[in-house]
């Protein structure tokens, strides 16, 4: 049985003989950037195409599955590609992930029903999860330890940029070329990614026979899918879904028990339990989950706040969100360069998340009195200070895991991000609905319509009623901002608690 590295052990020396500086950047980053960009883009590019898809294919009540199925599949695929990448080579598995992603994108474009499209999106997610996990692991495989922070900063910034660019690109493509172009655009980009991955250096995989943990994968799927489905159902603000949520969580608990039992006795576990007992791994993953909960819940609910409470039109609300998304990318980029120069890691999110939490608490307490322009500046400051967390998370798990478990470590971060994002969005939505229901059940029911149909629902209300609804929703959003700040404070505590302070 192999001994896992502890947080006190030095980082691996993978990539020590690799080129440096500009030559290293040109050799590695473009080949890793495009696969990550594709996977992140497809998480959000479909959102603005959903109305056109529903109009073309019908079956409106199932249209949300087009988004949810991709999230579930990417989360399940992450540890599978991590395990296989560790065993038989990450570059080789990147080709597999790209082939699955490109083929599934073509199937999405050819889908004739929502059910067919959902099935194709599952397959696309199985490729996309590999692209994200393997991109992170390939950086650790190809770049010297001290320089990884810079590349992780680049990659985190690219992830935020792709997620922000997705809805804009999806809307433009749908308007000019139809919703199927949202998927067809992946074909030329995917083929270009294949050509770029060819340029990556190959690394030995050990030459041992691959032992794959089939039952571990089954139980992991039985855990992840019900959890994410329950969180998705919980966002619908409908007491009628409570029995289904309880049943899904019961299935998830049983699957988790079986998964832990399986992973303890499997000769080649899908999830190395001993690895996740390392404080540097699970604390960094918890920080990643908290940051994802903060970021995704803000991106999900702020457009409604800006449109309903502040009176911004959809285009203006998108413009007002730019400081939020640009701040994340800028914070990640600057943090990566700081780590490369100084080697300091945990101190950056320890300070940054404290500033971000203070800013969000201020929004929760004083939002009605803050002008819109100042509010966007505060969001930009909060996101900039939060952006430094993800490069530190990746650097920490890679250092603790060592070269043998780079894929498993990267997969754990992807899983933490997905669950944190889903949980954060569901909890913030639940808080909003509960506060509205406590004030006025009629407004709570109207808020559920706003979530599904958008702010145009308000236009049908009398002026006096509309102003009252806006005031009640504005008050409820103060609670939402405070809830988001709780994620940030929790992430800050885990940053203070990280055992790896310097690379």
Describe what this molecule looks like in 3D.
- The structure is a single chain.
- The chain has 503 residues and is an all-alpha fold.
- The chain is 78% helix and 0% strand.
- The protein has helices at 21-44, 50-57, 65-88, 90-110, 114-142, 148-177, 181-184, 186-198, 214-234, 242-265, 273-276, 279-309, 314-320, 322-342, 347-366, 372-387, 389-401, 406-439, 441-453, 463-496.
- The two termini are 27 Å apart.
- The protein folds into 2 domains: 20-201, Growth Hormone, Chain: A (Up-down Bundle), CATH 1.20.1250; 273-503, MFS general substrate transporter like domains (Growth Hormone, Chain: A).
- It is globular and about 70 Å long.
Secondary structure blueprint with pairings:
Elements: H1 21-44, H2 50-57, H3 65-88, H4 90-110, H5 114-142, H6 148-177, H7 181-184, H8 186-198, H9 214-234, H10 242-265, H11 273-276, H12 279-309, H13 314-320, H14 322-342, H15 347-366, H16 372-387, H17 389-401, H18 406-439, H19 441-453, H20 463-496
Helix pairs in contact: 1-5, 1-6, 1-8, 3-4, 3-5, 3-9, 3-18, 4-5, 4-8, 5-18, 6-14, 6-17, 9-10, 9-18, 12-13, 12-17, 12-18, 12-20, 14-16, 14-17, 15-16, 15-20, 17-18, 18-19, 18-20
Please report the distance between the alpha carbons of the first and last residues.
27 Å
Tally of structural domains: 2
Mean pLDDT: 83
CATH level 3 topology of the largest domain: Growth Hormone, Chain: A
CATH H-level homologous superfamily name of the largest domain: MFS general substrate transporter like domains
What's the shape? globular
Q: At CATH's second level, what is the architecture of the largest domain? A: Up-down Bundle
Q: State the helix count.
A: 20
Q: By helix and strand content, what is the structural category?
A: mainly alpha
Radius of gyration: 22 Å
């Amino acid at each position: 049985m192999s001994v896992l590295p502890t947080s006190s052990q030095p980082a691996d020396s993978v990539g020590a003989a690799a080129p440096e500086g500009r030559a290293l950047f040109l050799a590695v980053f473009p080949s890793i950037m495009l696969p990550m960009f594709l996977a992140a883009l497809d998480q959000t590019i479909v959102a603005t195409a959903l109305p056109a898809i529903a109009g073309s294919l019908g079956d409106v009540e199932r249209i949300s599955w087009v988004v949810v199925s991709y999230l579930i599949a990417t989360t399940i695929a992450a540890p599978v590609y991590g395990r296989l990448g560790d065993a038989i080579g990450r570059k080789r598995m990147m080709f597999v992930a790209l082939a699955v992603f490109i083929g599934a994108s073509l199937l999405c474009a050819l889908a004739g029903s929502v059910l067919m499209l959902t099935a194709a999106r599952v397959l696309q997610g199985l490729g996309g999860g590999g692209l994200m996990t393997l991109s992170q692991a390939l950086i650790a495989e190809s770049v010297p330890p001290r320089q990884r922070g810079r590349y992780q900063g680049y990659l985190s910034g690219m992830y935020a940029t792709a997620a922000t660019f997705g809805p804009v690109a999806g809307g433009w493509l749908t308007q000019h070329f139809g919703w199927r172009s949202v998927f067809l655009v992946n074909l030329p980009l995917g083929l270009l990614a294949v050509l770029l991955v060819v340029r990556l250096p190959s690394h030995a995989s050990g030459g041992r026979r691959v032992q794959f943990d089939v039952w571990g994968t089954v139980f992991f799927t039985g855990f992840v899918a019900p959890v994410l489905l329950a969180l998705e159902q919980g966002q619908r603000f409908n007491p009628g879904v409570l029995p289904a949520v309880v049943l899904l969580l019961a299935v998830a608990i049983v699957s988790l028990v079986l998964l832990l039992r399986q992973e303890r006795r499997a000769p080649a576990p899908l999830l190395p339990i001993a690895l996740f007992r390392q404080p540097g791994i699970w604390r960094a993953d918890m920080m990643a989950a908290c940051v994802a909960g903060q970021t995704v819940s803000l991106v999900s609910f702020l457009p409604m706040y800006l449109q309903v409470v502040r009176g911004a039109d959809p285009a203006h609300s998108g413009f007002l969100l730019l400081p939020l998304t640009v701040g994340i990318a800028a914070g990640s980029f600057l943090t990566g360069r700081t780590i490369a120069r100084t080697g300091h890691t945990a101190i950056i999110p320890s300070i940054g998340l404290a500033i971000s939490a203070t800013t969000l608490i201020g929004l929760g307490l004083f939002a009605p009195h803050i002008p819109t322009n100042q509010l966007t500046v505060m969001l930009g400051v909060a996101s900039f200070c939060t952006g430094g967390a993800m490069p530190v998370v990746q650097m920490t798990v890679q250092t603790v895991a060592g070269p043998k478990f780079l894929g498993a470590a990267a997969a754990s971060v992807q899983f933490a991000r997905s669950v944190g994002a889903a949980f954060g969005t569901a909890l913030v939505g639940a808080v909003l609905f509960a506060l509205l229901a406590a004030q006025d059940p009629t407004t709570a029911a109207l808020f559920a319509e706003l979530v599904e149909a958008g702010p145009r629902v308000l236009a049908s209300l009398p002026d006096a009623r509309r102003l009252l609804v806006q005031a009640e929703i504005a008050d409820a959003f103060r609670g939402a901002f405070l809830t988001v700040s709780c994620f940030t404070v929790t992430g800050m505590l885990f940053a203070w608690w990280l055992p790896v302070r310097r690379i």
